[in-house]
Each structure stands twice: as C-alpha cells, then as structure tokens.
Amino acid sequence: MAVTKTFPDFCIQNGQTTFFGVEYYGECFCGDSLAPTATVADSSLCSFPCDQNRTQICGGQNQLDIYVLTPGAYGGGSY
Question: Which of 31, 37, 75, 66 is nearest to 58 (CA)?
Fold first, then answer.
C-alpha cells in the first residue's frame, strides 16, 4: 500500500520520526511511541477510503493504520 508522501513528511518535519498513522478518511497522527493501551484490531475495521486518493485505505472510525517511518523511503509499505 502506498501512502501519500505528505503524511510521513509532515511527521518527520515536526520531529516525530518513529510512527505515523492515518484514521477517518485521512487524519494524520505522528508519534515516537505507541500508547501502552494500544492493541491490534481486526483489519476490517480500517475500511475508510482516503480523501486524497479514494483507492487507498486511511483507517476507520477510531482505528488507525499505523506505519513505522523510514525517512526517505516512500511507497510499498516501506514505512
């Protein structure tokens, strides 16, 4: 899954370089750690299309697709 460059770039430029997540049609969240209460959810709960590209999935309601950032690596799940 390729995710728009905007999300990882935004996180890196704001000094949060470990994770980014997308939720609810394209809301972007950044962080350097996951909450201790974070759990893995069924992937079917992440079914909302991205506002910027309706062919991609951008999380769900209160469900984030989370990626590990690798600065400079874009595309194909390399985050």
Answer: 66
pTM (global) more than 0.85? no
31: part of which helix (H) or strand (E)?
A: strand 27-31
Cβ pair 16, 59 in contact under 8 A: no
* Nearest-angstrom CA–CA distance, 39 and 73: 26
- Looking up tokens 């959810």 gives 41
pLDDT at 41 over 70: yes
CA atoms of 48 and 62, how far apart (whole Å) = 11
The total of other beta-carbon atoms located within 10 Å of residue 26's CB is 19
